[in-house]
């Protein structure tokens, strides 16, 4: 029988010993034993996959949950739903975050009715009744004030902090949503109780005020930041059909009209055990954990498989260009369509990206920043996700008095060099060594390893991608780089977005 949450919290608080944890990189010799042997994979009765890795160097544990649900699972009209629900999951449950849920629930239902009435009236446009809107808005404000009487702000975060937590957070991307925390090893059952309760009994309290918080987040991240505005237009131009074109935070008008019903439906559709993975890495005993995981999480009902993303981006037939005017210094984004993570050529792009922009000896930095001095910075990366075909992207800003057009031409010169000249064995080996070292460093800490296991499980379809990643990258040849550059890094496959200072 699962312990009642209040009983468990009370017991934890009584027994809590104060100590601090140092969550800097733990230099664990990962390869002392093959990773394939160290990862214990288990599936609970409801389909929830669990990945466990023992590391006894310190009495700490990284605990992470990932749902294969993000912005890519949205469509126009409900953009931002995944990100909004991530915010909501911090608001508590029927047990946590409330002083009296039975009474609070009645007020929350009243708030929902008033908010829906306001939305219905606003949808009338010019025919909307201003007096009625004022009356409804006043009633909504009064109901929200009443609801705050029952609210215990940030109770989940405070409980974790009182029990030695570090890094309690969550992230929404195009491909997935992830919830993370690091705890002392003797607090794992507390985590199970809280997280299973969050998944079983979430309460979307403060929904409408939090919607305003997300609107402000969008304003700060996209509307007043030059790169945010440029990037949003860039993605909407590069992708015409695939939902990768939509902003993860949501379009402003969608956020303003996002309803609690839509967000609850997103939760019921995608936050199901058979669409989730848990990773626990650290000072653990896997055989002892499995029965507890089954008790806490195994009783959460599975659901039908979420609808797949069927839309495929049509092959681009010519260069696309867009200019964005903003009161800021010029910037440049260049994107080339490329394969998804599970396709062979994706490994080659890892090498090309490192070759062009990783470190002070990389080609773009050495040529454009150091030697010619025409760029303030230049970098390469993949956006906006990995599960589906995406974009190999170059971002750069010119150094005065050079122009963004001059910088763009110089970048193409380096791209053309990739197509014409084979990379020397020495240069390629330096890149391969650097990528290998970066991968190993990312697995050093408990949280780093947990994150990588979940990332590849969600994007590549299996965490075992890690087992072959080093080998695949090491097999990339100069001929592979020539072939991939000639195939993908071409004008007709290119989207260019330039930010110019407005008149």
List the helices and strands and how they pair.
Blueprint: H1 5-15, H2 35-38, E1 39-43, E2 49-54, E3 60-67, H3 81-88, H4 101-122, H5 130-148, H6 155-162, E4 166-172, E5 177-184, H7 188-200, H8 207-223, H9 226-238, H10 252-257, H11 260-270, E6 276-282, H12 286-297, E7 320-325, E8 331-338, H13 345-357, H14 363-371, E9 375-383, E10 390-398, H15 404-420, H16 425-442, H17 446-459, H18 465-474, H19 478-488, E11 494-500
Report what the structure shows.
- With 503 residues, the protein is of the alpha+beta class.
- The protein has two domains: 37-98 and 151-297, 2-Layer Sandwich (Cytochrome Bc1 Complex, Chain A, domain 1); 320-500, Cytochrome Bc1 Complex, Chain A, domain 1, CATH 3.30.830.
- It is 47% helix and 16% strand.
- The protein contains 19 helices and eleven strands.
- The chain has helices at residues 5-15, 35-38, 81-88, 101-122, 130-148, 155-162, 188-200, 207-223, 226-238, 252-257, 260-270, 286-297, 345-357, 363-371, 404-420, 425-442, 446-459, 465-474, 478-488, and strands spanning 39-43, 49-54, 60-67, 166-172, 177-184, 276-282, 320-325, 331-338, 375-383, 390-398, 494-500.
- The strands form two sheets. Strands 1-2-6-3-5-4 form a six-stranded mixed beta sheet, sandwiched between helices. A five-stranded mixed beta sheet has the order 7-11-8-10-9, sandwiched between helices.
- A hairpin with a 4-residue loop joins strand 4 (166-172) and strand 5 (177-184).
- It is globular.
- Tell me the span between the first and last alpha carbons: 68 Å
Low-confidence stretches: 1-5, 11-32
Overall SS class: alpha+beta
Main sheet specs: 6 strands, mixed
- Summed up, the domain count is 2
Give the overall pLDDT as a whole number.
Answer: 93
Note the beta-strand portion: 15-25%
CATH superfamily of the largest domain: Metalloenzyme, LuxS/M16 peptidase-like
What is the approximate shape? globular
CATH class descriptor of the largest domain: Alpha Beta
Could you tell me the CATH topology label of the largest domain: Cytochrome Bc1 Complex, Chain A, domain 1
Beta-strand segment tally: 11
Spatial strand arrangement across the major sheet? 1-2-6-3-5-4
The ordered H/E elements are HHEEEHHHHEEHHHHHEHEEHHEEHHHHHE
**Total helical elements:** 19
Q: What Rg, in angstroms, do the CA atoms define?
A: 25 Å
CATH architecture name of the largest domain: 2-Layer Sandwich
Helix content: 40-55%
